[in-house]
Amino acid sequence: MDSIAFFPSLFKMLSALAIVLGIMIGGTYFIKKLLLPTASNAGEGALINVIATRYLGPKSSIMLIDVLGQIVVVGVTGNQMSFITTISDPAAMEKLNGLDRKDREFPSLMESLTKYRQKLLSRGHAGKDGQGA
């Protein structure tokens, strides 16, 4: 009769479980963070629309927000929001209104994946170039 070692089998089983759970949690994080649109882009009928967001660093960004036809610039950090200014210049308003609606929408799944792949490839090539020099 062959005896099965209990602890090595238990270790293999727990390792496989940890890997599977890690893949599931990582996939969920990836989908939530990178691919799903947020509630801030509600659509055409909303009274408040986020026109653009520029991330400045961890937990800090500047947002252009359309509130009932007025363009408001807001600074956002991890623990506060600060009013910066209201855009009332007619030339700037015309430029914002002239933006293609497609630029304001979230990209499709394939566009997001293609962009993410290009980022990964460019980082890979940069790392190889840095090592060879």
Question: What does this entry look like structurally?
Answer:
This protein is of the alpha+beta class and 133 residues long. The protein folds into two domains: 1-35; 44-127, no CATH class. Helices cover 50% and strands 24% of the residues. The protein starts with 5 loop residues before the first helix and ends with a helix. The model has no long low-confidence stretch (mean pLDDT 77).
What labels describe this entry?
4 helices; single chain; elongated; 2 domains; 133 residues; alpha+beta
Structural class: alpha+beta
Give the termini distance in whole angstroms. 59 Å
The profile of the biggest β sheet is: 4 strands, antiparallel
Main sheet: strand order: 1-2-3-4
User: How many distinct folded domains?
Assistant: 2
Low-confidence stretches at least 5 residues in length (pLDDT < 50)?
none
Q: What is the helix tally?
A: 4
Summed over residues and divided by their number, the pLDDT gives a mean of: 77
CA-based gyration radius? 23 Å
In N-to-C order, the SSE pattern is HEEEEHHH
Sheet-strand content, in percent, reads: 15-25%
The dominant shape is elongated
Number of beta-strand segments: 4
Share of helix among residues? 40-55%
